[in-house]
Design brief:
Distance between the termini: 79 Å
Radius of gyration: 31 Å
Structural class: mainly alpha
Number of strands: 12
EC number: 6.1.1.17
Keywords: Aminoacyl-tRNA synthetase, ATP-binding, Cytoplasm, Ligase, Nucleotide-binding, Protein biosynthesis
CATH architecture of the domain at 372-467: Orthogonal Bundle
Main location: cytoplasm
Catalytic activity: tRNA(Glu) + L-glutamate + ATP = L-glutamyl-tRNA(Glu) + AMP + diphosphate
GO molecular function: ATP binding; glutamate-tRNA ligase activity; tRNA binding; zinc ion binding
Largest sheet: 3 strands, parallel
Shape: elongated
């Protein structure tokens, strides 16, 4: 096992599409583990699949990491660019007798497997070149295969899964270097993790079988193995493997939903890991608490209602400036126009009355429409219905009454209550027309909060505009 005196973790996504939420959760676990121990968190782009790896997909990974706020140490490493080093290790293993040249063609391998199927025996390929005399090697293309142990077992001591045993007669002599000289994924991962000093391989449990094969390379090279920690996958709300049908699969989908990054970190941390009964916490707590012993073995399950609850908790506690930065990023992600300086300032002023019960950034923007709107307002259907002739007459009277009153909540409340009573109404009956006049909506923050945020001049202008509307 690795020496944990200098903790080094990594995330190594393949740039072949979106950044999957499972990759984001794995990245978070690695980040928390390293940051809580003064260690390093590294990023490696596993871009060896040249047909599918694209610069756009690489940028999508970087965007996802940046949005989540998971900073990595040093430069991102390209696995493809390290191919000469991978080949060097394969040839070193060949020289040390831990690997061999295999000249079998694909047709020969398939014929072997077909014969095995016919005879109802294992189709695991056993190369005839494993113990061949080098003098018999032909002048032909070859791959380099690992000389894996045939007897006994390969045991992985996993920090999450416990002791996992793989029978060696179920593991083949895997190819490490192809006939064109390019390395396979299995070899590249081990060489990169070793060279980068990775002490803890924290990754999805779909890699658990890979660990047995990769451990054989570590042991053949006399390299220290990392601490293995294979975490359960994420399932959809229906308990099935996560797909677009049962939950958003890309991390940036959640950015576009308007979930603040801090809330997403909190939610992802609890998706498969626990610290007692703590559900809601900030980064500093997660960094201090996170440990591999808190990771469960059962698949985690997405729960959008819980995510919304976590998001609401964070929104209520975030600093206004931080929330505004999140809103600006959300608008950019979704292709919406940025806020003007005046809109930005009004949103900041309104934030105290927007945060309550908001579950997402779109909720904040919806509640804050009164601060973002410009005259002439375009009332929605319910708001238009509230602006009947009687209500418009009261609003006209109010425009004059509010000219010179003190602009405080108490004075405004008293003035509006008296205006309602003068017409034999309770204030609640007047609130609807006021919401329609001030925001063009029927659901808004309190009338008094809106008036205080937009100020006397704008309030009077909106009341006068609503009062003069045609039926």
């Amino acid at each position: 096992m690795a020496d944990s005196s200098q903790i080094v973790t990594r995330i190594a996504p393949s740039p072949t599409g979106i950044m999957h939420i499972g990759t984001a959760r794995t990245a978070l676990f690695n980040w928390l583990f390293a940051r809580g121990r003064g260690g390093k968190f590294l990023l490696r782009i596993e871009d060896t699949d040249r047909a599918r790896s694209t610069p756009e997909a690489t940028e999508a990974i970087l965007d996802g990491m940046r949005w989540l706020g998971l900073d990595w140490d040093g430069e991102a490493v390209s696995q493809f660019e390290r191919a000469p080093r991978h080949a060097e290790v394969a040839r070193e293993m060949l020289a040390r007798g831990h690997a061999y040249k295999c000249f079998a063609t694909q047709d020969e391998i398939e014929a072997y497997r077909e014969a095995a199927r016919t005879a109802n025996r294992s189709t695991l390929y056993l190369s005839p070149w494993r113990d061949a005399d080098p003098a018999t090697h032909p002048d032909a293309p070859y791959v380099i295969r690992l000389r894996a142990p045939r007897d006994g077992a390969t045991v992985i001591q996993d920090a999450v899964q416990g002791s996992v045993t793989f029978r060696n007669d179920q593991l083949d002599d895997m190819v490490m270097l192809r006939s064109d000289g390019t390395p396979t994924y299995m070899l590249a991962v081990v060489v990169d993790d070793h060279d980068m000093g990775v002490t803890h391989a924290i990754r999805g449990d779909d890699h658990l079988n890979n660990a047995a094969r990769q451990a054989q390379i570590y042991r053949a090279m006399d390299w220290l193995e990392p601490v293995w920690a294979h975490i359960p996958l994420i399932h959809g709300e229906d308990g099935k493997k996560l797909s677009k049908r049962n939950g958003a699969t890309g991390v940036m989908d959640y950015a576009r939903m308007g979930i603040p990054a801090a809330a997403m970190r909190n939610y992802l941390a609890r998706l498969g890991w626990s610290h007692g009964d703590d559900e809601l916490f900030i980064d500093e707590q997660a960094i201090a608490w996170f440990d591999l012993s808190g990771i469960g073995r059962a698949p985690a399950r997405l729960d959008m209602k819980k995510l919304e609850s976590v998001s609401g908790w964070h929104i209520a506690r975030m600093e206004d400036a931080e929330l505004m930065a999140e809103i600006e990023r959300y608008l950019a992600f979704t292709g919406q126009a940025p806020l003007s300086r005046a809109q930005h300032d009004l949103m900041v002023a309104a934030m105290y009355c927007l945060k309550d019960r908001a579950k997402s950034l779109p909720d904040l923007l919806e509640k804050g429409q009164f601060a973002l709107a410009c005259r002439p307002l375009q009332p929605d259907e319910k708001a238009r219905a509230a602006l009947d002739p009687v209500s418009r007459g009261i609003l006209h009277e109010l425009t004059a009454q509010l000219q010179n009153v003190s602009w405080s909540k108490d004075t405004l409340e008293a003035t509006l209550t008296l205006a309602a009573e003068a017409h034999g109404l309770k204030f609640g009956k007047l609130a609807g027309p006021l919401r329609a006049a001030l925001a063009g909506r029927s659901v808004t923050p309190s009338v008094f909060d809106m008036m205080l945020v937009i100020g006397r001049e704008e309030t009077l202008a909106r009341l006068a505009e609503a009062a003069s509307r045609d039926g």
